[in-house]
C-alpha cells in the first residue's frame, strides 16, 4: 500500500504502516540488519508462568515465593542492572553478569544480608558500573561521532521511502529512545475509556484551557453506514474536545509587556490607578484558573498528558500552591515543543493538531544518505585540546604556594583577632570594651603578641593603638587594662618605620634609639596627642612602670602633670595676647603713616524733564516730598537715606520720652 501524500493521526496509524516501521539512529540512517547470534549466546530467558513472580529489570529472573524475590532484590546482579538502567544502559543477563564479575579485579561477594558487608558490596558494584561505563566510551576523540543538534522529533522509517516523525514529548519520560516504537504501537490501543489530554495556556492576562480525547475507546469504532435519509454518515472525528474555557484579565500595560507583579519586584511598587487594576487582574486571573482546575480535577486526574504553556512566574499558578490539583513533579507534565501564539481556543486546537498529526516525508535511501552527509559536513569540527606542557616538579612546587589548612578552632581564633584589630584601628572604644570583657581571656590577655599573619605595625595591642593614633583606646589600655609600655616593638616593624610624618612635640626632646634600634610603644606613636597620653600616665602613676628608662623602660622622655599642662596653656594664652597686641600696633602705625583720604565729592542730582518721567507709578495730585527726593537715586543711596530717616525718628522719640520723664 502506498502512503504517498497522506496524513496520519498519532493514535490511529494504519496497521500496514505500523508493522513496517523501524527506528532511525542519530544520523538518520536506517539501522543495519542484525548479525546472526553467536553460538555462545545464552538461551532466551524463560517466560514467567501464571501465578509466578518475575523481576521487571533483570532478564529471566523468576521467583517461586516472596523470600526468593527479596533475596534477588538484595543481590549484586539486580543492583547492577538498576544502576545501569538509571544511566541509560541495558540490563544484562545473569550469565553476562558473571562474566563481568570474573573480569573485575576486586571480587564481589555474594548477596550477603549482614550490615557489615553492605558497604563493601556497594563499592564493588559501583566499581563494576564505573568500569563498564569507561569501556563503553570511544577510544579516541577523533574516532567519535560528532555531537548532533537535538531535535524535538523522533523519526521512523518505512521501506522503501516513507519517513514518519513524531514529537518526543508525547512519549513517556521513563521510556528510553530504543523503546519508542513499542510505545507507539501501544498508543494505538484506546482501552475502555480512551486517551485524554489536558492543555493549558496563559500569557499577557489571556487564558485558554481544554480537556480533549485524543483516542476513542476500543469499542467506539467508526463503522460507517448510512443515515435515515440514505446518505453516508460522517466519520467521527479523531479528536473530541470534552471541555474548554477561555477568559482574560487586565494584567499587562498596553504596548509595554511584562506583568505588574514582575514590575513591582524589579522596581518600587507603583501607586497609580492602572497599577492597582493590574494587580487586581493578576489576583483574579490566578483565582479563576485555580477554581477551573478544581472543577476539572477528576478529568485532569484521568489525563495521560498535561501540556502547559506559561512563563516561570505564571507556572506557579498551576503548581505551587496548597492543595494543588497538579503536583509539581507530575510525570505527565509537558511543555509545548514549538512556538505558540496568544492563548485562545483556536491556538489550542492548532497546537493539538500539531502534536497529534504525524510528520511524513518521502525520501529514498540515496536522498537520506545525501542528507546525512550534508548534515555531518555542516557540523563544526571539535577543536583539538592542546596537551599541557610537562613541568618539572620544582616549578610545580614554586607555582603552587602552600595554603595552610586551618581547623575550625583556628579559623574562629583568626576571626576574633581580625575583629579586635579592626576595632582598635577604627577607634570603636565602646564595642571594644564589650568584646574584650567576653573574649579577652581567650585571646591571652592585653600583653599577648599580635599574630604574625596580621602584618600589623606593632607587636602588642598598645603598640597597634599608638601607631593608629587612637588616643582614647591608648588611654584605656594604659590605665584600665595596665598594658605594658616597656615591651619592645618587633624588629620587622622597627626596620620598616621611619620618623617621616611624625608630629613634633615642640620642646619635648626625642630620645635616640636604644641598642639594636630598640623602640617602644611611645616612640611608635605618630601624633602628639597619643604621646601626651603616655606622659600623663607616667605623671599620674610613676610606680607602675619604668617610664623614663632607656634600656629596659618605656623610653618616655618626660612626664606631663596637670600643673605643667596649666602652665603650658597660660604660656599659649600669653603668646596669643602678645601677637594680638603686635598686630594692633602695626595697624596704628600704618594708619598714622598713610595720608587722610579726600572728602567725598557729591555728584549733582540730575534734574528731571518732562521727557524723562520718574520711575514708578505716579498718583493723581502729585507725590510727597520724600518720594520726589529719592526718585532719581540709586538703590544704595535710597537705602542710606532711609536709614538716616529712621535714625532721626528714633532720636525724636527718645527726646520726647526724656521730656515726659522730667515733667
Automatic annotation (TrEMBL):
Residues 580-592, 602-613, 637-654 have a biased composition (Basic and acidic residues). Residues 193-358 form the VLRF1 domain. Its main location: cytoplasm. It is found in: Cytoplasm. The keyword Transit peptide does not apply. Signal peptide: none annotated. GO terms for molecular function: endonuclease activity; hydrolase activity. GO terms for cellular component: cytoplasm. Transmembrane segments: none annotated. Residues 496-506 have a biased composition (Acidic residues). GO terms for biological process: ERAD pathway. InterPro entries: Ankyrin_rpt-contain_sf, ANKZ1/VMS1, VLRF1/Vms1. Residues 25-52, 133-153, 216-236, 379-411, 489-519, 559-663 are annotated as: Disordered. Residues 33-48, 381-391 have a biased composition (Pro residues). Keywords: ANK repeat, Coiled coil, Cytoplasm, Endonuclease, Hydrolase, Nuclease, Repeat. The active site is at 260. Belongs to the ANKZF1/VMS1 family. The VLRF1 domain mediates binding to the 60S ribosomal subunit. This is VLRF1 domain-containing protein.
